[in-house]
Design goal:
Helix content is 48%, strand content 11%. The chain is an alpha/beta fold. It folds into 3 domains: 12-237, Rossmann fold (3-Layer(aba) Sandwich), CATH 3.40.50.300; 240-439, no CATH class; 447-582, Trna Endonuclease, Chain: A, domain 1. The chain has a 5-stranded parallel beta sheet with strand order 2-4-6-1-7, with helices on both faces. It has a 5-stranded mixed beta sheet with strand order 11-12-13-14-15, with helices on both faces. It has a 3-stranded antiparallel beta sheet with strand order 8-10-9. α3 (82-102) runs parallel beside α6 (147-164) and α9 packs across α10. The two termini are 35 Å apart.
Length: 586
Amino acid sequence: MDYALKERIGKPELFTGRKEELAYFLKWINDTKDEKSQSTAILARRKMGKTALLERLFNITFYKNDGVIPFYYEIKESDVWIVDFCQDFFLTFIYQYIAFKSRKINYLGRDKRNSLEEAKKAAIKEGLDYLSGVIENVAYSIRHDQVDMLWNTVREAPKTIAYSENEFIVQLIDEFQFMNAMIYWDKAKKNLAKNLAGGYLSTAESKIAPLLVSGSWVGWLMDELNNMLPARFRYKYLKTMPENEASELLFKYSRFFDVPVTEETAFSLVRITEGNAFYISAVIRSDYPDKDLTSIDGLTGTLEFETLDDQGLIKSSWMEYMAKAFPKINDKNAKNIVLHLSKHRDREWMRDELREALNLEMPAGDLEKKLNTLVKADIINKGSSYYCYRGVNDNIFDKVFRGVYDEEIRKFDARVIRNEYNEELKKEKKRYKRLLGKLNYQKGYHAEFLILNRLLYHAANSNELLKSVTRYLPDDFDFCQYSRVWKYHSSPEYAKVFSVDIFAPSVNSDDYSIIGEVKNREVKKFSIDEVKEFELKFAEIKKRENLERVVGFIFSRSGFTNEADEYCKEKGIACRDDERWLETGK
């Protein structure tokens, strides 16, 4: 797939998982063509992958070119005059629209400063003369200081154009909560436009240009939507990744950043982070001087550093939330509330229960304001009813918060956190060993990882051994250095979504690249129908990745049927069922 918008995740292949969310929102986008989609808000804390998801949805929709036009805009966390904001918002939309209609992605990188006239010229050049009117309206409003009209025009532009051209546009607006907090009516930035988002009261009901908004401050965003845009948005919570997706992400990042892990430490890290992609990434990329993720002790030290040290990415991220809350309510009572709810995060607490449990001597109204401020800052959660609250359901946040504030409330020793990590990792180690014994876990669930790891780090050094245990390789084949070794997923824009377990393009074009499938089954042998299915995927990937010298191979722990083996031999598909491929040594 060609990526029109440069994604902040970096290399596109680093985007991992989120299969359920991608499927849900791609259907939401497609349903726009039948005017069935309701404006929706994605809710999740920072670093959960909202921006990556929105950018990928933009790129897929842009690439599909299937009757829905995507518009992506991020509201920045910086003060801005409303005229500058409106112009930037509008020109971002216009240039994305022109890029989509002309299929020329260079328009996405245009300098938008003072370029309304340039945008008009571009629209006319691409045969989109009908854009001239709305561009001129915006320019007129700016010249004549008609700020209200300017905001109405740019806010309604996607819906207006979709209606006039009988089209469908999806609006992907990131960090929506900043609209009322960072934009000013006056150029001196003294008069905050604190009700700006309310303008979407009618706009958000559009079925031809619905909104998909996100916000990193869940409590803040929900407060804005509930108060200013009641019943206009459906809520969709972005959860932590399921274990299989979190494992795939961990192994992928391990290889990309060249930070080795073992099956045991990988299993333990996925479990202790509860599938949180940011925590996994932070540990892999940690600057801990003694980082060693091939041992439980090394993993413990890295987690402790990330949780308690000011240089830790995890601690730094949570400190942003705390910085939003405690300047407003910087007292021991507020911190004690967070500590108490975090410690007892398995249950909800009524407001009066908290007052009694913590001996809080304050009026009910003051306590309610304090609790709601903590909710808005995302360091406690609302419960199931208006007067119920609960701690953030996050094992690592609890440790970060105690590391920062527990000493102020009660005697605190940082070694307590290390001991807790030790105990938790011991439990995960026992769980891993049980799985290892019951299910042959190492050579089952992680067989893909073991083979990927071997190809990346050891295949060239084990060339003769691996060739000796692999059938039907080309005569001139040698295992070599690979530029990367991934699990390959086709993008969801294709009519049929598919994946293969191993994609290893060679560094040198004279060497063979590898496209492979791994089956971990104990009994069922690989069938000829499965080989033919793999053959189709192999051909598609070879074509899409423009590979000349490439070999397909299949590893099947339970072996192959006679028909499948003969077919592989005939077609030159390498076969292997020797478990020496799963050995971790060189």
